Amino acid sequence: MCSAPKVDTSAQDQMLKEAAEARKREEERQARIRTGTAKIDTTFGGFDDNFYKSRNDAVMALYNPQLAEKFGLARDDMTFALARAGTLNSTMAADRQGRLQRDLGVQQAQLLSKAAGEENTLRQRVGQEKSALVSQLNATGDADRASNDALARTQIISTDQPTFTPLGDIFAGASAGIGSYMQGQNNAAMLNAFYGNSARRGASRVVG
Fold this sequence. Notes:
The chain is mostly helical. Helices cover 80% and strands 0% of the residues. Helix 2 (49-84) runs antiparallel to helix 3.
């Protein structure tokens, strides 16, 4: 009885071995990626709602005192101008004070918007930094590098401070024109008095 010829499967066996090794390496890489991702998540975990609110509060703390100071100076200047013009209790004074108060409301709203913008910018920055680290980790599979880079980047973000730009002359014009307005009123009153007296004198001569 003849035996079957022996088939050489060495090439197939080598391919199976290499495939098994490749699967093992990929499983190990995925495990490192999971480990690295967990480390990134932990490191960035301190960036919660309270952290972002602290940026909002920091912006308000920078600008609120300056806003209050500029408003106080504008109000005092306007009060002095009204007092010099003798119109401190006039309708014009009430109108000017109302406009100044409305301007304050506008500036406060703009400040709130600025603080919210700084907070949102910080949220976006944190998200972008974290996403970049995860992408790097997926490309390299280096969990230790990802962990070290995450720590370095979060330290930089944590110590970063909002950009401060001094407020300009935001209440300019609050006192403008008060003296000129009163001068015009006085001139008009003098003209009215002059022409009124002239008319009365002319009428008296005609009657006489």
